[in-house]
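Let's practice the habit of predicting before peeking. Look at the sequence and jot down your guess about where helices and strands might fall. Then scroll down.
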Amino acid sequence: MRLGAVCSVFRKGIFDIKASSYAEVGVPFVRIGNIRNGLIDSNDIALITPEAHTAEGNTALKFGDIVLSKTAYAAAAFVNLPDCNVSQDTIAIKLSSYGLKQFKSGYIVAYLNSRYGLALMSRQFQGNVQEHLSLPDGQKVLVPLLSKELQAKTDRSLRDANEKLQIADQKIEAATNSLVAALGLSQWHPAEPLTYVRQASEAFAAGRLDSQYFAPRVAELLIRLGSGGRSVGDAAPPRRERFAPAESGTFRYMEISDLRSDGTAATEVVQMREAPSRATWYARKGDVVTSTVRPNRRLSALLSPDQDGCVASSGFVVLQPKLVQAEVLLTYLRLPVFCELMDLHTSASLYPAISDSDLLTLPFPEIPQAASNEIVSAVRAAHSAREQAHSLLAQAKRAVEIAIEDSEVAALKFLKEN
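Done guessing? Here is the structure:
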């Protein structure tokens, strides 16, 4: 059936979003970068005010609806948020009452992200500078009407994957809370006076004149975190294995945009001859990479065994945990208070970044073993849950492909075995 024939809403996202509509707390605003993997990735998602969301009610979506990419590349996502709105580079989709009788939305998303759905969507993209999908062309995409049983199982896989990702987020939050408590920061409420005084010699020694750098809050935080006398570089020295592209072959590359909110990262296979100039450092399994650009975004990741030997961009420092377990280091680097310290050491305005040397000299505290054990357990559980989520998403897509290539019986057997 044609996708447009089973939808009550098939609209381009908000065209003109005002800067004043963005908010620190509000309704998720889905952009094209949030819809790569079949579910909406809330990592670094923008938020808009409830008023802006209400004013743009024509593209307001709820849990179970669908978002398509409209620009650059073909992709679809199951809306796994209670409420959201979407940007002009995406298409908001709601199934009609008739469409809901014919299809499960999770099944449609699994199909559209399969090799056959992506091929049919990509075929409709047009343009020279940046390809785009028009609304009439998007509505033409065919969706096979498979059995209710197979649709229900693939739809369930996407919903189960979302639940696994929620578990991952909860475990990461538990790890953070354990570390905050171990550092005595749970009830920390430092004084923040309107004025304070520092010696000129302190400013000249630091090479800084910004008042935030000398705030009493920062001084107290440095004392609390530096009680053991160790630095980040002491606990985890940098890995300095420089990458040099060969004349042929491929490598796995990691950009800052590949880091996820739970401390994991994706990698992309790149041809050696197309290696970006930013491809700089080798990273090994068990290493922790942290972004030096805009550190307030809390972007760090622990490399899994299958990412051994990948190449990180120049925007990362690659750290080798020596005196600390990798999961504890990861959690510490992502603590809001530590990211606040990193942010104080950034320079430049367009792409504020902390230097490697400044990062490595920041304090690393003594952490009780009991707290370390809790953190390690929680982080590993989070990463396991995310792996299960990825497996469920992959299985749903593959089941649809098997149904098309072979039969629905074979697809159901595949899902049962997995």
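How did you do? Residues 34 and 223 are 39 Å apart (CA to CA).
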